[in-house]
Specification:
The complex is a heterodimer.
Chain A (H helix, E strand, L loop, with lengths): L1 H12 L4 H26 L7 H4 L1 E8 L5 H12 L3 E7 L2 E8 L5 H10 L7 E6 L1 H30 L2 H24 L6 H27 L5 H29 L3 H36 L2
Antiparallel strand pairs in A: 1-3, 1-4, 2-3
Chain B lengths: L4 H18 L10 E6 L14 E5 L2 E2 L3 H8 L4 E8 L2 E8 L4 E5 L9 H4 L1 E8 L6 H18 L5 E6 L5 E7 L4 H8 L5 E10 L5 E5 L2 E8 L3 E4 L2 E3 L4 E4 L2 E9 L2 E10 L3 E4 L6 E6 L2 E10 L1 H11 L4 E3 L6 E11 L2 E9 L11 E6 L2 H17 L6 E9 L1 H30 L2 H22 L4 H20 L6 H14 L7 H26 L10 H29 L2 H35 L1
Antiparallel strand pairs in B: 1-2, 1-6, 2-3, 2-4, 4-5, 7-9, 7-25, 8-9, 10-17, 10-22, 11-12, 12-13, 13-14, 15-16, 16-17, 18-20, 19-20, 20-24, 21-22, 22-23
Amino acid sequence: MILKRKRKEEKDSKGRNYSHLLVISVLLVVFSVGFLVYGYTQRGDWFIKSIELRGGTVISVSLDKPVAISDLEKKLSEKFGSVLIQETRGFSGYGLSVEVDSSVNSTEVLNELNANGISTEKSSIETIDPGIGESFWYQAQIAVILAFVFMAVTVFVIFRTFVPSTAVILAAGCDIIETVAFMQIFGIQLSLASLAALLMLIGYSVDTDIILTTRVLRMTEKSVDERINSAMKTGITTAGTTIGALSVLYISSVSAVLSQIASVLLIGLVLDIANTWIQNAAIIKWYAVRKGI
Amino acid sequence: MLKYWRVWLLILFLSASALAIGFKYYPYGRHVVEISFVSDSSPAKGVLEQGMLISAVNGAAVDSFDDWSKATQNLSSGSVSLTVNGKDYRFSVNDTLGIDVMDIERTNLEFGLDLRGGTRIILKPSSSNVTKEDITQTIATLQTRANLYGLKEMRFFATTGVDGSNYIQIEAAGVSRDIVENLLSKQGSFEAKVLKPVDLANEKWSMQIGDRFYPVSVVGNSSIEIANQTVAENGTFSLEGIEFQYMNQTNNRLAFLAKVYTGSDIELVYSDPQHSGVRPSGNGYSFYFAVLVSEKGAQKFADVTTGIPSKVDLQTGERYLDSKIYLYLDGKLVSDLNIGSELGGKIYQTPQIQGFRADLQGATEEKLRLQTILRSGAIPTSLKIASVDIISQTLGSDFFISVLYAGMLAGLTVFAIVFVRYRRLRTALPMAGISFSEVVIILGIASTNDAIIWASVMVIGFVLIAASWWKKHEIDIFAWVAVVLVPLLGLMSWTIDLAAIGGIIAAIGTSVDHQVIIADEALMKTDERRVYTVKDKIKRAFFIIFSSASTVIAAMFPLMLVGVGLIRGFAITTIIGVLVGILVTRPAYARIIESGIKKD
């Protein structure tokens, strides 16, 4: 018995040193913030917004076979100015989405697609007035800020201790910032769908942090490292199931909305592994060892 | 038996949800189509109405829209028998049967436009100082238009942007952009103007209105003076309560336009065969219909047309006034008509609106559209189309199948991961079952017309929990909350669209996570120094999952308040899914795991 307790203390003071690994998460934050700032200086906007949030027209077409996008993009942009064409792939065949300015007549674009041998029989057209887009964007910002604040308050109510609560909120904040940066790297626009995904991410991110914090603060019969390891086993499983399901959703779905939600969450969950099991783990270990919990 | 009350509660909610989704009463059998529109030209007009159920055409059963199309495509004349609401009807078809049908809904779920196809339109008032009352009035008028035009299942919502500006959102199945542009977004302000010529007589101009004369003199280059007012070309002035516009001077003639009627003068829009119709004309079709104008308006017409000379049409030999009546809708000319010479100076209450289209269908539609706009009256403001989403129905059903496949595959993947992790079917199988039942319960809560089912669930749930308590089983506060709250939530219904599916995915995602947490805590090997019961460990698991569920709800809650339509559906579905999870399904999972461990 005595031997065991001694071993526990030794483990705690030596143990795994998380502060070395902390470099990784600091680098991630610095890189992400740097990338966002760089983007801001280039574009004058922190985000790459989708047409829902800035106004415009998007025409989606379902196809039986793939088409040469670059050719088509060239032809269309000669006619309609700035055009963005994206390809989607799924169970029910191929898809194409064409983004044009809201002033462009969508029927003309459909005719032009027809003229290029693309059947527009299965199509959807979405036009958003720039004014509405702005109003959506404003509401979305409020929603994200409120969501974050409500989450933070809830976390404080749950743990009622400063350092662990702050660590959880910090991890969630880093998740969001890093995910937004990586979205830009992967060319995923900020849309209503990806915003919804970011909000879901707040929930998922806090999930793993709560497992970690609860185990470390409450499962006091084991060494801190053992507690962190047991939490990590659970946390990696939960992240694994979610990542598995989302990968399927991302690969299989022809729906742009669901693919976008899935891709944002995938990025966020991978980043969350670093933020929870390196950053938050380092902080909570330091806290637990210092407080002798 | 009652030891497993948590599981019984889950089974109760699950079966209630299945009923809420699938239970439908079919008074005329399952194999019917629903009438969505009966056109004016249909022989069944006035006999059949939308919403009635057709089960057979000429004795052959119709089960779907496709069946109906096949059965009726060659019906252009002759007699047809329809079995509608269980009764037989016989109509003699002349030209067209004029009945549109749609497949009936097989479930009580309402699917969003992105899943079943349709149009979502956002209209924005052109002027900025529009009040809430204006919007309400506008929606009422638009609703009338939609009903008159026979557009089914069109829903109108007033929405407010954060900047306080008002929008009108319309959702409908199968509405083309054309209808939005030409029917719904039209303000519908109607004006009839009569050309009033004033000719030089005895070196003087004089305008006759009724039996009074007003001298007119030309001043400067292009202005005139009348009744002490100087009016430039295209300028307006008012005389005897009639609004005039000075057009121009050609030789000895001054031309004026007098506004004789407006939309508020229209008392009736005729659609009977005596006053309206469509007929071949030249290389197309012309349509016409008369409107009945108030006496006040007709009096203005009489006053203005007094004294207008008449002339003979050289082709037809008929005598007309040397004038015309122009009918405008939203400032656009829709018809210009000759005025028979016998009408000059008379009270004329039934002007006719005319138009021409290249094909019969176009003419019929245009006629109905104009009649509808005039009947419903003008809306307080003109509307601009701010956004239009059109999703074709075929794309819609593809979406649905894709989503189903993806959901099934995702479920299998999760099951595989969980099974590999625990290598215990006793842990993995219930997890799959619980997650699936959560989807069913969320859908059950979202379905419509389920008040009776959920009311019974509340009673049965109460009896179940009370009986378990009587038998001295441990009941916690959450059980009581569950039997009250979940049936109450069940009364809600919302549309299952992509956003809601996103919400279901989010809820199931947290559900699996939480079940992993429960399983991990329960199966954890404990230090021999302290003895934990499985119950204690599950309690710790529940601390974690309650915490995480509250953060999810806290994060989603503001979206419910500020969110735009799309995100709101997502937030509501997620919150309800998480609530059902922590109150019903996850406790049941814990109970199953607990008994599984005890058996080992």
